Amino acid sequence: MFSCNTSTSGHSTFLLTGFPGLEAFQHWVSIPINFICAVSILGNSIILFLIRTDPALHEPMYIFLSMLVASDLGLCASTFPTMVRLFWLGARELPFDLCAAQMFFIHAFTYVESGVLLAMAFDRFIAIRDPLHYTTILTRSAMAKVGIAILVRAVLLNLPGPILLRRLLFPQISVLSHCYCLHCDLVGLACSDTQINSFVGLVSILLSLCLDSFLIMLSYALILRTVLGIASPGEQLKALNTCVSHLCIVLIFYLPKLGLSVLHRVEKHSYPALAVLMANLHFLVPPFMNPIVYCIKSKQIRQGLLKRFQQKKVDIS
């Protein structure tokens, strides 16, 4: 980080970081990352289109899935532009306002995704616990209210971040740890007192990711207790099988974040390139893997895809 002697407020320039030590090969290293981004956008767009246009997919589980897909697309749109600018155009500079805006959208879409995963866990619990009243409990009105609540929570928890950053003093030029802006990174670069910012950031995480992960685990504990109360082993297996897709994407969402957290505390300075790679992948892997998981595990989505391809083939013929 540059000297704080020439610090300014709100007029700083932040320099994005690629892969330390691999600058000469940065274009080649970025190819798989850009490929993952492109496939993520394409795959999630296809899933969203299928759910929107296929009446057979207008069920609570798939409506929640469409919310998850939309948040994945938002996350890709928040991170992909700066990656392209850095890796392919060599543009490292990012003004304060743009950096703060990117930080807000990255964290907001992350919190939305976490909230949707919690809603999907509740959806699976209702489907197994009370299947006869499943559609009467999870009506379209109820799901709309859940979606609005998730979005409002994400906005309210992240809105103080950019506002409080404006009161801090930064060097005229600061070097970020990643190829995008994160709250903890910006707070760590500030020259003035950051106790309020750190406290607000901690509360934000506790009321989103930590709370959601706890409630998801609680939901699965209740699901497991309900399943164990089913007499038939075949019915038990069938009930658990409906949760496999959701459980996979929960692990895909939370495990990279856990791995990155451990890496930052143990070996961040020993392997800076690995830390940057993990930081990129922990945002890119969930949007990349979620459509793949649901295409493999969901018969309805596979049938919808097949129907679209067959319809396209007939139209071409």
UniProtKB/TrEMBL annotation:
SUPFAM superfamilies: Family A G protein-coupled receptor-like (SSF81321). It comes from the Eukaryota. Keywords: Cell membrane, G-protein coupled receptor, Membrane, Olfaction, Receptor, Sensory transduction, Transducer, Transmembrane, Transmembrane helix. It is found in: Cell membrane; Membrane. One of its GO terms (molecular function) is G protein-coupled receptor activity. GO terms for cellular component: plasma membrane. Residues 43-294 form the G-protein coupled receptors family 1 profile domain. The keyword ATP-binding does not apply. Its main location: membrane. The chain crosses the membrane at residues 31-51, 63-88, 100-122, 142-165, 199-224, 236-255, 275-296. The keyword Secreted does not apply. It is a multi-pass membrane protein. Pfam families: 7tm_4. GO terms for biological process: cellular response to lipid. InterPro entries: GPCR_Rhodpsn, GPCR_Rhodpsn_7TM, Olfact_rcpt, OR51/52/56-like. Belongs to the G-protein coupled receptor 1 family. This is Olfactory receptor.
